Fold:
Amino acid sequence: MSGCLGEAWPAAGMMEREPEETLCLEVVGRVSTTPSPHGLAAVAALERVGPPDGRSVLGETSAILAGSQPLPAWQTAAPHRPVRARHAVRARHAVDVWDSARVLFVAYDGPVPHPLMARISEVGGTMVDKLALLTPEAAEAGAAMREDGEVLMPPTELQ
Structure:
């Protein structure tokens, strides 16, 4: 369901302002008319990772459906705890020689430290053409992330 939420924005119409909530309501509508264990699992998963505004409807639907069928084992195994906010601890960026592409690395703390990498191009307008979570050492090895023919962009520290 996390992947479905990730696809909600690209699949949304130009004027759509809340595609995640729309996805949640569509899932609730479909599962309510044709209940199934897979549908209950989808609602329970959306309840965990979905947008905060849609969680009350998802929780109510999950409770109703759980009355007629068992909840997934992972839903009842451990109580859901909100994810602790991660804090950015370091940021670096690199710009190509033509000033048409940038790579941004933002390192986050936590039990599993990780950098977020965004490759941004400026040809024909600003566009994020690659977004990835990396292992801590991957951000240091920028040469390995370059594609053939790309110019080396040495990263500089940001404040």
